[in-house]
Specification:
The complex is a heterodimer. Chain A is α/β, with parallel strands linked by helices. Chain A has 13 helices and 17 strands. In chain A, the strands form four sheets. Chain A has a seven-stranded mixed beta sheet with strand order 7-6-8-9-10-14-15, with helices on both faces. Chain A is globular, with a radius of gyration of 30 Å. Chain B is mostly helical. The chains are: A alpha/beta, B mainly alpha. Chains A and B meet through helix 1, helix 2 and helix 11 of A and helix 1, helix 2, helix 5, helix 6 and helix 9 of B.
Chain lengths: 443, 264
């Protein structure tokens, strides 16, 4: 097929000879022209950088998904994922797609700082989570060392104010104390003998310390106090001691799955909630679904939010969440706090124009409010705690709570009730923590 | 592929195929301009060598074609196997969901929520990661939560014992399928195969450059051969990672399952 070297090509129709040089020149020009026209459309949507993808920002969701605390905290992760998905669908935050990472601290206090360290090492700009006060306190040294923000969604005992935590749950003056006041009133049955039962860690012990101090200033008394491990299952002896004590009201600060056997033991002992009510601080509707209705009906829950709260924001939130996670999902206080906190974080970041911890903190100090399902939530600049409604609910047969008492407006937080922690105050706008004499909660 | 050309899988299928074909043709044409004149000098010095090159090229094309064909089949089987694993995992999850629906509430409801949670995670979070060639990590947390909860159950009647045994069997089957799916995220042809393929393609093109024909004939015929080589390469590259690229194993089996679960 070789062509003799001296062969010439026939003339082109135009009369010009089609030499190799001409062909090359034409080909090169055509290729360049085609590249110029086709390149933009060819590379659109690919990661070569034309156009670039939305930048991402990581956040950490620290909720136990296994172990005894998973029963309540898994739903908080779902709420936060739902919020993040909505942020991203609406264009992200400050033009960044939010990438949530949710490792499992396995209900173990020692794993919370380890998981948080990994998240921060991976570039997380904020952490959302923690459940028990032990888990929160275990995170504090790391948060302060890295100057990172934790958004903590659960009610807690107070007696703490960190620049690195935004506290979204109620403190005792927003939950336990108004509740006990009501049970002491005529409407609440004029209860005077309180039995305190709780899990054996810092929240129940400190809360009960505040309760003891508060009751000491009234005509009521503490007739018994018991603490059990988080995974405690045999409550029959405790219930027997409650009955023996002659108590007319039980304040329950047991946390996690331990509430299931506690309510079962009360039911099996034939205790009538109308005569000896169990008033719980750490049970929500989300926890109630895990126990038979007969065990919980008529018992009392102290909270800031119940699923039955009748507001348009609540209806919209529940509908949106259920369309994503299932129609049978129920809602609880900590879920609402988690929802409000992550939305408050978004508002603060947008107000600050930055994801940096200090800028976000300053945005909170300047005032950020979110219309949450349970009412408007703001963060008190002095203590970085949330303003919260007080609500008292009674469990119905459908395992939801009927709201019996509700505060007219959100209550301001007081992390250091002076009856328990005299001299202690915090105002981050005026120099921070003012220390009083050391207080022993066992005293 | 020997190195992780992640960006390649982000390009829409038609454009990626066009890009690969264009790259091969461009390489061939550039070589025809720069390398061919040098090679042709050797060919022209030895009369009859052009015919010999023609025979060698034919022979080489047969062997190389066979190699490419077999590799393409292997890559396709890899995709098919991944698709089957995904379907089996979704089917096992569906069967498990049905089994746990027979447990009394609240235990049954807790289990249903955990299965739903896992399914949602696979669709919304695991799949996009798999499409980037990343093995998703948080699914194992959800699978473990489901496992922990299910093994907690203490059957109290013979009927519950049978149901529980069946649920545990389905759970194990589901975990096995899940492991296979995760394994196939990074599965692909061995590096040595890629070297053989690319070196073979280069030799093919080299032989074409040595072939002494008119320049335009060389450009057209060689260009066609290079375009087809590029297309075959694209096919193998695209099928090499079953979860990557526009044409890949989809999460449809999980999506259908989740739609049904959410309606419950």
């Amino acid at each position: 097929m070789a062509i003799p070297r001296n062969t010439t090509l026939p003339p082109a129709p135009s009369g010009r000879r089609l030499s190799r040089r001409n062909a090359l020149g034409s080909g090169l020009a055509a290729t360049l022209a085609a590249s110029r026209v086709l390149a933009p459309s060819l590379f659109v949507g690919c990661s070569l950088g034309i156009p670039s993808r939305m930048p991402t920002v990581k956040i950490g969701l620290l909720h136990s998904q296994t172990g005894p605390l998973a029963i309540g905290s898994t739903s908080l992760r779902d709420v936060e994922l739902d919020a993040v998905e909505r942020f991203n669908a609406a264009g992200g935050v400050l033009g960044h797609r939010i990438e949530p990472q949710a490792p499992d601290p396995r209900s173990r206090t020692d794993l919370f700082p380890k998981r948080a360290t990994a998240l921060l090492d991976d570039g997380a700009v904020a952490l959302f989570g923690g459940w028990t006060s032990d888990s929160r306190k275990a995170l504090l040294p790391l948060l302060e060392q890295r100057d990172s923000l934790l958004f903590y969604p659960v009610q807690y005992e107070g007696n703490e104010t960190s620049r690195n935590v935004i506290y979204g749950g109620q403190v005792p003056n927003q939950q336990v104390l108004p509740g006990l006041e009501w049970f002491r009133s005529a409407a609440g049955g004029e209860r005077r003998k309180f039995f305190l039962i709780g899990s054996d860690y810092v929240y129940p012990r400190t809360t009960n310390f505040i309760v003891r101090k508060w009751l000491a200033g009234t005509d009521a008394a503490v007739v018994g106090e018991e603490y059990v491990p988080l995974d405690h299952a045999d409550f029959a002896p405790v219930v027997a001691r409650i009955v023996e004590s002659g108590a007319d009201c039980i304040l329950n600060t047991v946390n996690g799955e331990g509430n299931l056997p506690l309510l079962a033991a009360l039911f099996e002992a034939g205790i009538d909630p109308a005569k000896l009510p169990l008033v719980s601080t750490s049970i929500s509707e989300d926890d109630l679904r895990s126990m038979p209705a007969s065990h919980a009906v008529g018992q009392w829950m102290l909270s800031s939010y119940f699923q039955t709260v009748d507001t348009p924001a609540n209806a919209a939130w529940m509908a949106g969440f259920r369309s994503e996670f299932g129609r049978d999902r129920v809602f609880g206080d900590a879920m609402e706090s988690a929802w409000c906190l992550i939305n408050l974080w978004k508002l603060a970041v947008e107000k600050a124009g930055s994801f940096a911890t200090d800028a976000v903190r300053q945005a909170f100090a300047a005032g950020v409010a979110f219309e949450g399902p349970g009412g408007t939530m703001t963060i008190d600049p002095a203590s970085q705690h949330a303003t919260k409604h007080f609500r008292l609910g009674r469990v119905r047969r459908d395992r939801l709570c009927e709201v019996v008492v509700s505060s007219d407006a959100p209550l301001a937080p007081d992390p250091y009730p002076q009856i328990a922690f005299p001299g202690w105050r915090c105002d981050w706008t005026k120099g921070g923590i003012e220390r009083g004499p050391e207080v022993s909660i066992d005293g | 592929m020997p190195t992780d050309f992640a960006w390649f899988y982000d390009i829409p299928t038609a454009k990626a195929a066009l890009l690969m074909v264009a790259a091969f043709v461009a390489f061939y044409w550039i070589g025809a301009v720069i390398v061919r004149p040098v090679l042709r000098m050797f060919v022209r010095r030895a009369p009859g060598l052009n015919d010999l090159i023609g025979y060698i090229l034919s022979c080489f094309c047969v062997f190389y074609g066979l190699l490419l064909g077999l590799i393409a089949v292997t890559a396709y089987q890899n995709v098919e196997s991944a698709e089957q694993n995904v379907t089996r995992e979704a089917a096992a999850l569906s069967a498990l969901y049905e089994d746990v629906s027979r447990y009394s509430d609240p235990f049954g409801q807790n289990l249903r929520w955990l299965i739903r949670d896992y399914t949602r995670y696979v669709i919304k979070y695991a799949w996009p990661l798999q499409q980037q060639g990343i093995i998703p990590q948080e699914g194992s947390i959800r699978a473990e939560a489901l496992f922990d909860r299910l093994v907690d159950f203490q059957p109290s009647t013979p009927a519950e014992e049978i149901l529980h045994a069946e649920a545990l069997r389905q759970l194990n089957h589901f975990l096995e399928c899940r492991r296979l799916r995760l394994h196939s995220v990074r599965s692909g042809l061995p590096r040595a195969m890629w070297y053989v393929m690319f070196v073979g393609a280069f030799f093919n093109i080299l032989l074409c450059w040595m072939f002494d024909t008119r320049f335009l004939t060389q450009l057209v015929l060689g260009g066609i051969l290079a375009a087809y080589l590029g297309m075959m390469m694209y096919l193998i590259v695209d099928m090499n990672h079953p979860f990557r690229g526009e044409v890949s194993v989809s999460a449809e089996a999980f999506e259908m399952l989740y739609e049904r679960m959410v309606e419950d």
